[in-house]
TrEMBL record:
<feature type="domain" description="SET">
    <location>
        <begin position="5"/>
        <end position="122"/>
    </location>
</feature>
<dbReference type="GO" id="GO:0032259">
    <property type="term" value="P:methylation"/>
</dbReference>
<keyword id="KW-0489">Methyltransferase</keyword>
<dbReference type="Pfam" id="PF00856">
    <property type="entry name" value="SET"/>
</dbReference>
<dbReference type="GO" id="GO:0003723">
    <property type="term" value="F:RNA binding"/>
</dbReference>
<keyword id="KW-0539">Nucleus</keyword>
<dbReference type="InterPro" id="IPR001214">
    <property type="entry name" value="SET_dom"/>
</dbReference>
<dbReference type="InterPro" id="IPR044570">
    <property type="entry name" value="Set1-like"/>
</dbReference>
<keyword id="KW-0808">Transferase</keyword>
<keyword id="KW-0156">Chromatin regulator</keyword>
<dbReference type="InterPro" id="IPR046341">
    <property type="entry name" value="SET_dom_sf"/>
</dbReference>
<dbReference type="InterPro" id="IPR003616">
    <property type="entry name" value="Post-SET_dom"/>
</dbReference>
<dbReference type="GO" id="GO:0042800">
    <property type="term" value="F:histone H3K4 methyltransferase activity"/>
</dbReference>
<keyword id="KW-0949">S-adenosyl-L-methionine</keyword>
<protein>
    <submittedName>
        <fullName>SET1A methyltransferase</fullName>
    </submittedName>
</protein>
<dbReference type="GO" id="GO:0048188">
    <property type="term" value="C:Set1C/COMPASS complex"/>
</dbReference>
<feature type="domain" description="Post-SET">
    <location>
        <begin position="128"/>
        <end position="144"/>
    </location>
</feature>
Length: 144
């Protein structure tokens, strides 16, 4: 049985905005579903370019599988504010409900009130590096 966790977004020490717990969350609990528009890769590529042209600094594209991406940039929920961390307290998992793939964020460990919710974005390795801002002891230095 899933009861929606009480969460809030606010200023983050990691990067701009973040998502924070408003209640204690136990280990291995469902925290939130990553919600947005389900699109194909070609559409995601076009949107990413358009977002840059429009001056939208961050896009919220989350890969579900080889063909499908969830775009939460303009029609998402609070999950889009979750920041990357090299030592995260949560993880993302793709689950299938009634033949539909969904991205769900689960806690890896107990999370305290006002603690920031984080997960490892697991971006593919690329030549152009995106700097990581998590500043944890075991920070890899880049998101990719």
């Amino acid at each position: 049985q899933f009861r929606k966790k009480r969460l809030r977004f606010g200023r983050s020490r990691i990067h701009e905005w973040g998502l924070f717990a408003m209640e204690p969350i136990g280990a291995e609990e469902m925290v939130i579903e990553y919600v947005g528009q389900s699109i194909r890769q070609v559409v995601a590529d076009m949107r990413e370019k358009r977002y840059v042209q429009e001056g939208i600094g961050s896009s919220y594209l989350f890969r579900v599988d080889h063909d499908t991406i969830i775009d939460a940039t303009k029609c998402g929920n609070l999950a889009r504010f979750i920041n990357h961390c090299c030592t995260p307290n949560c993880y993302a998992k793709v689950i299938t409900i009634e033949a539909q793939k969904k991205i769900v964020i689960y806690s890896k460990q107990p999370i305290g009130v006002n603690e920031e919710i984080t997960y490892d974005y697991k971006f593919p390795i690329e030549d152009t590096k995106i700097p990581c801002l998590c500043r944890t002891e075991s920070c890899r230095g880049t998101l990719n």
